[in-house]
Write a structure and sequence with these properties.
mainly alpha; two-stranded antiparallel ribbon; 2 strands; 58% helix; 5% strand; globular
């Protein structure tokens, strides 16, 4: 298995875990641990936008930040992610090796695609971790992520 195949395998695994976390965000929750913090729904939308931006940039060679308006309900956000994670896995599989090994323009700087993809995957995992710390204070439960949680032994 080469690096690209390993990335795709991990992307698929991590996106399934992210879906489990997003599915635990209660509808209508506006919880934030601090006034400067974003809500779980806002963070979830950032994850969605980052994932889409990264594959678009890998394919086109240019990163563009255009997250679109935040959906009104958490259910809409969850549904968008459910569709997107399947679509993006297919797009990563179809990405030519020449693009994976190529470069992209990242807001004025030329960057290699592969390290940028890994960096975005790690950032998405980070944001998913933020959401997981919100779940119990919002009255929800924490799913298994890399092993048992206090709610799913």
């Amino acid at each position: 298995m080469d690096e690209r195949d390993r990335f795709i395998e991990l992307w698929i695994t991590e996106s399934a875990t992210t879906q489990k976390v997003l599915d635990r965000i209660p509808e209508g929750s506006d919880y934030r641990p601090d006034p400067k913090s974003r809500t779980a729904q806002e963070i979830a939308w950032q994850i969605i936008a980052e994932e889409r931006m990264m594959i678009d940039a890998a394919e086109k060679g240019t990163a563009e930040w255009a997250p679109g308006p935040l959906p009104a309900t958490m259910r809409e956000v969850q549904a968008v992610y459910e569709r997107q994670r399947i679509e993006l896995a297919d797009r990563w599989r179809r990405l030519p090796a020449s693009r994976w090994e190529g470069t992209l323009e990242f807001f004025g700087t030329s960057r290699p695609v592969a390290p940028m993809a890994w960096s975005f995957l790690l950032d998405i995992v980070h944001h998913r971790g933020q959401i997981s710390t919100y779940l119990r204070p919002m009255g929800s439960t924490v799913p298994r992520i890399y092993g048992p949680s206090g709610d799913e032994p």
